[in-house]
Amino acid sequence: MTMKNMKRENLLEKLRKEGRFVENPCNGKGICGKCKVKILSGDAGKVTETERRFLSEEELAQGIRLSCMVYPEEELEVETLQKEKKAEVLSEGYVPEFEKHTEIKKQLIHIRKPNLKDQTSMEDQLLIQLGNVEIPFSLLQHLELAEGTYTAVIWSEKSLMALEPGDQTDYLYGAAIDIGTTTVVTSLIDMMTGKEMGTASRINAQKEFGLDVLTRISYETEHPEDGKEHLQKVITDSINEMLDEVCRKTEVPGKGRIEKHDIYEITVAANCTMMHMLLGVSARSIGRAPYAPAFVKSKNLRAAEIGIRAGEGARLYCLPSVSAYIGADIVAGAYVCELRKQQKNVLFIDIGTNGEIVFSDHGRLLSCSCAAGPALEGMNISFGMRAAVGAIEDVKITEQGVKLQIIGQEEYRQEKPEGVCGSGILAVVKELRRTGLIRKDGAFIKPKDISEEDYRYPMLELDGRKRKFKMTERLRITQGDVRQVQLAKGAILSGFYALLKKAGRTMEDLDQVMIAGQFGAHLPAESLIGTGILPKEVKDKLIYVGNSSKTGAYLALMSGKAKQEMEELAHHMEYMELGATEGYERLFADCLMFPDESEITE
Amino acid sequence: MTMKNMKRENLLEKLRKEGRFVENPCNGKGICGKCKVKILSGDAGKVTETERRFLSEEELAQGIRLSCMVYPEEELEVETLQKEKKAEVLSEGYVPEFEKHTEIKKQLIHIRKPNLKDQTSMEDQLLIQLGNVEIPFSLLQHLELAEGTYTAVIWSEKSLMALEPGDQTDYLYGAAIDIGTTTVVTSLIDMMTGKEMGTASRINAQKEFGLDVLTRISYETEHPEDGKEHLQKVITDSINEMLDEVCRKTEVPGKGRIEKHDIYEITVAANCTMMHMLLGVSARSIGRAPYAPAFVKSKNLRAAEIGIRAGEGARLYCLPSVSAYIGADIVAGAYVCELRKQQKNVLFIDIGTNGEIVFSDHGRLLSCSCAAGPALEGMNISFGMRAAVGAIEDVKITEQGVKLQIIGQEEYRQEKPEGVCGSGILAVVKELRRTGLIRKDGAFIKPKDISEEDYRYPMLELDGRKRKFKMTERLRITQGDVRQVQLAKGAILSGFYALLKKAGRTMEDLDQVMIAGQFGAHLPAESLIGTGILPKEVKDKLIYVGNSSKTGAYLALMSGKAKQEMEELAHHMEYMELGATEGYERLFADCLMFPDESEITE
Q1: Which parts of the sequence belong to the 2Fe-2S ferredoxin-type domain (chains A, B) (predicted)?
Q2: What is the nearest CA distance from A278 to chain B, expressed in angstroms?
Q3: What is the value of pTM for the model shown?
């Protein structure tokens, strides 16, 4: 094959331009022998020496050729022989259709021994085969190549990341990570197929510095010398542990265990504060008005730069945020839920310590964030606890007494619960209101206002002048607890209304409400409507989309186009600062009211 | 100024397109007030608020305006008010004309305080003013900006390197470094003017690992665990010391001392082995056939990546090489001597332990490298020493006896020299041949072949069967010493002839011979011709170009275009491996012969 021929287009290139799938790990260099096609009619020219090396006599007799070696002089009818591997999807949660196009690719190359007539440098041997990709000098620092076949790992068609001995083009792994304030989830992905190979999750190790983002930011502020570094280290340590854990469980036929050094890209979705802390960037400006973060744009760096141990030169992609309180987790969710492509009015809501709401008016995105406080996650509540074994997660108030559903126990038995988690709190407040034990303004009724025969009478307890709900022998719900929930629901509902108003839409215009997040997934419509977090009109419009933050990270891993579209989405999402919105305080006060009893279902 | 206006071309942009010089450190953002021009005729429109802030009543009355604020609607006659700072040049050595266009630039920006209505992230504030340059996340890690004026340092129009408080646009510094096997020279450059602010030089600290490149490569080979790291560390330590030293001596009006953190770019020329060792890349393949280096291309990295301490994010540019033995020092020299632009036949030669020769046939470049050995630098010679105080640097053999010129002493006195350096060795061998004390084949004549009355008789000494030249009471030149010089001169002369032959040219075609390098600068034409290092025909064609390696590094620092042109030059320079050239051994043997006495002048 002369250099002159090289410039003409070969059959492989022609087929790829037509969008037909032909496997070609060596990128048409005649090294891998995998780009076989069958010539059905037409003259494909002489069979080359290279083809004889890879094709059997039988194959040649059938008209099978290596498409990178055929330079068509006339029209050919060609049958491709491989089926494109169908992209598989995550083990759980809603995943939209996407075009697999990973930013990391592998390519076979062949290193030959230099001689006195050809002293081409090692770098130039690589460049000649790989096209003009950048070769980081750090890779040259430990480049000791002998003659033979190698697999080049290339990032974004522009930079060589690693060289693996032999043909490793079948194996390519990445990790998608969702860093929540409370929980961190790591998913190991086969980037060749999109299959999830395993997951690990941990309580966010930053909890020792505070349960919510503001407390952690305070920690950073109070420890100017090393606070930022501590916060970063615990989270990167935790990610390293999880990567170890997910790899340990794997077993790939023909390869064995996936090792950490097989992971070449990691994508991260997180709220804006978590993202700052992951990258070791000060989050202080997020913690105080006017809430201007240091950055919102996506970041693409070497994972090693922040201490994450993975493959040589492995990339770390951090999804973009919109503002201090609309983070990459929400951008991920909005992307997964295709909010920019909606042909209707959709409201997306992630309920948690911060409630984030995105309204899509036929693709135009408007967002706000509501400081709901930690009550909805079981914090700042007398007997509040996280959703774990022993936590009350549902409550029914019946004429026969209080019935509880406890995590890890059979239905509605009353075996000494340890406390009450977020969904339990919402359930009990909903029930208190449904049964009239609290008024619309959230105050407990007085025991003297109901008769002693009333089934509710024994459930009310008077402690001095303080009224409480007696949930079990030991557990009480206090007026303070109800107020905490009330503040949270007021914050979210007022955000909901303010956003609709800003968009110039009414409740009737709303076609769908999407509930995102792991926490939201545990909140039944009855609790959401019954406590008045959401208005009754949306009851039949709710759908649950699961952990869309992790799914967004997954899509970014599997597709460069998804990264780009998320960046565009983040750029086009408008943000409304509730605190700076006219009439917001009045709206918030109105939204503190609980619904009418009649509107609440069991 | 509305966004609509922004898109029209202002007067500043028009003037710059016409190639007229207008100072504008804020890049036309209306922040610095420096782009004043005088409107001689035509209507320049209304004076803006911004202009009133920067211009006095008197200036306005004279028709002076800020050119970035004027959007011409008609033809204007304009007088520019500043004179472009004239580029100054290095303190010594030949420097061709060049276009100053540094890759590092400074730009004024203004940070404003965010508020609840505008929560633009700090990163986005920067991006809006700087255009879409990349902001490395490491810079975000220590970004604590208050409201006010900052100076952005931008690399290659694409990446933000640093932010300095206040207006620092008048100050920009860089360093040009020449790493020779023997000597390292560092030059501190004012990149705004091109002026050399100071120099420092050191014996290459790698000398503890060997005096020549092959010995150092052996050291690396013999210490696989940390040899490469040691070799790298001594050289980077040494560069850090020199940067300290050159800065320490400076005093800039209005600024004070230049600090290391003011240095934003460092350019390095070096031979291929030194470049590998500087970057911590194994040079082992350079030390053995077939001499294929790990890399030859230019490298552009952060100086901190190899432990060089300079400004935040400071760049390190390593000039490109051609092959294992035609390094970036020769590329630099060939560029400085404009070999690609020559309209004649020019031979460029750098004489040292390795002699590198480049032949330019009207711009077509052909090169070779000759392993001359260390004799020409005074090594492997009985009383050899480096060029230092006490070394014999010139010798005359007269009828009145041997006259010496000793470094640090008055002319031709004989005060106990310590030894003989490279130029002295060449001089004495030339004199031995001129006076017939050695024959064409390099052998000493026998004492018995001349009469005892001959003035040369007492200069010949017989030590058993070994003949020696008695230079002083203590110092002798042995037959072995003469052989060392003979091997060196044979290597260089045969390279010279082989290159001419390969180019299809004869001696008559040669228009000029350029002698490069610090060592070459000390070799008079008489020695070069008299010892037969160069043929007698070139005697009147010699010119000396000094340390063109350092000058090349300087040009790369001052001009992005120079970098690009050097890369092209390196790419287009052909390399001939002498050892693989047919008939080379015969040619080498022929070239061992010394010239006829009659051809040698005193």
Answers
A1: 1-84
A2: 11
A3: 0.81
